[in-house]
């Protein structure tokens, strides 16, 4: 509660000072000085983190710097691990989709093979029926004509098998 009151009083004082032009100039000069100081601290910290100018640091400062670097490194590693984990999850999801698609394609191929086999049975069945009729007619003509050069049904069946009908 006291912090809220302090912030209120500070904001009220700053607003009151803004009404006076000289006070406003002083405020902005102070703000610029604070920002310059903050920039210098950040530049100094950045040089230390990059390994520049650490020869003048004490052992305690070096330990603090090392702790900062270790903390930063842990954060980077955690972020990298999180990214890799998300990529692995996405790859597993894609894999399962591909496996499902592969199963569907295998089923389509299986169905196409079954349809092909049924068509072959129908074609072979029609061919066999026609062949039986031819054989019956051929044997009838053979018995009448005694023609020895008439086609043999066994040869035709073998030819059909070679053609894979």
UniProtKB/TrEMBL annotation:
Residues of the K-box domain: 25-117
One Gene Ontology CC term in the entry: nucleus
Pfam families, A to Z: K-box
PROSITE patterns from the UniProt entry: K_BOX
InterPro entries: TF_Kbox
One Gene Ontology term of the molecular function aspect: DNA-binding transcription factor activity
Tree of life domain: Eukaryota
Coiled coil: 25-122
Keyword set, alphabetical order: Coiled coil
Name this protein carries in UniProt: K-box domain-containing protein
Species of origin: Lactuca saligna
